Structures are given as structure tokens and as C-alpha cells.
Input
Amino acid sequence: MTMRNQPTARQVRLGTELRRLREAAGKSAREVAGLLSSSSTHMSQIEAGSSGINEERLRRLAAHCACADGELIDALVGMAADRTRGWWEEYRGVLPTPFLDLSELDHHAAFRHDVAVIHVPGLLQTEDYARALFSYMAPELPRSEVDARVSHRMKRRVVIDRPDPIRYEAVIHEAALRIRVGDRAVARAQLERILEHSASEHVTVRVIPFDVDGFAGGGSAMGHLGGPVPRLDTVVRDAPHGTGFIDSEAQLAHFRTLFRRVEESSLNPGRSRDFIRKLAEEL
Output
């Protein structure tokens, strides 16, 4: 197969999972390559995501590694066979690669859970809110890149607006709802947008008020995207140095627990809508 110069995060994840299968079986890359009538170099390229693998070889690899998890193998085959070139490809070479990787992960996700403490989650942002965020960055971005980032963020909302939307749940701290990223009109429109989305059956919004007791999760901001099987879930975390994609089983278990604890600190959806509606009326 053709070598990839820049494999996507999803392609890298496939390679990572194949390496985990091999390592769990206690086999070396050279050993598995021999079983597949390939080379250790090619096996390393597959595990790095820079080369693809067809269904027949993938199923042989799983058999040689004694993997009996049929659902996982089928999910990996689906990832290997996927040739989707989604709307995000128009931004390749225009925006940093993590923007495109995130869009691809959203597209394939079974669900998405967001925890937001300082800013409204990207899927719920209005255009003016997103523009205010990107315009505030230092060093200042060129107008063309701000426009591209805003356009990309608005298109990401397709996963909750399309006819077959993903299940989406956002837990938002009161701080994120009160901080005026833009002016008063932008803030009001943003709260109204959240209320509009929260009325959808597939969208759940919960609020953590300032005065809730026992909430020590101020650093819990994250996105949790569901894979075709739980082992293929991904957690997304933003940091000053960039976006990180987390996929080890131990870390995924940690963030599932963290999301549950944060959710337990929030108001139920009905009270959350009332809370947001009151904030909007105060503006």
C-alpha cells in the first residue's frame, strides 16, 4: 500500500491497536511480519499508521495473536477499510492537523461527552463566540486563519445537526456561561444557542453552579468520544502546547470515572435549562 506522509489520528490509532494486540500476545514485530509473509519494516510502518493493512491480513494478524474479541476485530477491520474523505479535508494545509483529526473523530464517534469549565464547548458555540475566542489568541492570528478556524468550528456542528446525529452530552460550569468572551449581545446569543440545542432529544446539557458543594474538578475539561467498541474510545484534552488524544485503557477508565464524578456534581437537564434561561434573561 502507498506510504502516508501524514497519517491521521485515526490511522495512527489503528496501528497502535494492532501493536497492542501483538504485544499482548508476546510476539515481536519480526515474528508477526514473518507470519504475514511481510517484513519487520513494513510491520513497523503499519503500527505507526504510515501504511495501511487489508482485511485479510488484519484478521490473520488477530488470529496469530490469539485475539478472540470478535467485536474489536470487526471494528478494526472497519477502520482499516475506511476511505472517508470528509468535509474537513478542505482545511488540510490551511489549519493545524489536530483540527482535522478532531473532525474525523467526531464524524466516526458513537457519542461525545464534553466537560467545559472556562469556555462553552466547541459544538455549542455560536460564530461570534468562536470568532472572539480565536481573535484573542497570542500571538495574534492573521484574519484569514481566524476566518478558517471559525468556519471549521461551525462545520463541526454537523455531527449534532445532521439527520443521524451522535448522542451528545455537555457538562458546563457556570464560569463558562458567565465569562463574556464577546460583548453582552454575544453572551446572550450564546446562551440562547445552548438552550436551543438542549431541547433536542440527542443533546443533554448539564450545569455545575458556582455554589455546588464538593466540586474539586476545575481541571476536568475534556472531550470523550465513543468508539465502535469501548476499547476504541478516545479522550481529547486541550493544553497550551496543543491538543492531546488519549487512548490507553487505563487512562480511558480514569476519564470515564472523572466524567461520572463531574456529572454527579451537576444539575439535572431540566434545572440546567432553567438555570441557563435565567442567566440569559439577566443580560
About this structure: The longest strand covers residues 167-173. The beta strands are 111-116, 167-173, 203-208, 222-225, 234-239, 242-246.
